[in-house]
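Hello Y.,

Per our agreement to keep a running log of every chain we model this quarter, I'm adding this entry. I've kept the format consistent with earlier entries: sequence first, then predicted structure.
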Amino acid sequence: MARPDCTVCGGTGWKTVERLEEDEKPKRVSWIKPTSDPDVMRRVWAVPCDCTGDDRAARVMARARIPKRYEHCDFDNFDTDVYDAARESAGWNRSLEQAKLVAEGFARDYPAGTETGLLLMGPCGAGKTHLAVSALRQIVLRGHTGLFYDYRELLKEIQGSYNAENQTTELGILEPVLTADVLLLDDLGASKPSPWALETVGHILNSRYNERRITLLTTNYLDSGPATPAAPAPRLPSGQAVSAAREDSLEDRLGRRIRSRLYEMCRTVELFAPDYRREVRQAGRVRS
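Predicted structure for the entry above:
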């Protein structure tokens, strides 16, 4: 928002300049303006006034639909030295550090040499959304279009568009999802799979894949159920063994065809760490 008392733009939010960097020229409006010499004309460009820069980041976050809960997420405040190094599972910290390096490198290099997105897999509270939002934030602040959607929220919005009383349409919701330079789909597979949901997410992913657009995904579901220590199987009074319930895999939630597509679309990054909120929140730190 421009300052009403700005002496440069007069509260309009725009100022004129006579020179721009080459990569900025196509993004700005220009025209020929006479100078004090009536025989000399000079091209000028309209650019955002400096007084609008104070809330630019907030406006960019809003356009990208990044929730306020995650607006603070950045690589600088992603802690990779969280868990007690003396514990048997000290590899948790190394897992977080490696995931951060991959996500940070992806955001830094985008779009040069970036042909695949990222699929961040791991348990609840491991920091997947924090890293994904950090990458999206860095990319959109450089001027690329980006969009954040929670998987369940997206499906509900599309379903809601079928209501005759709703002012939105399915095409109106899907168009930015399909065309954004970078789409972040959070909590993939969270809702119970249905033929309609699988068809919808398959359409989104295939369309973006075919148009070579980058997709970032986070999910709590792994490619196989988490390994558990061997233990005697419980038995009924009759002596019959009872099989333990198996947690769903990502393929169970999305189907084999979509999971196969994701191998082509994304680099898989697994975070092996317990729930940060449960393990460390007592120290007063908060992670998304």
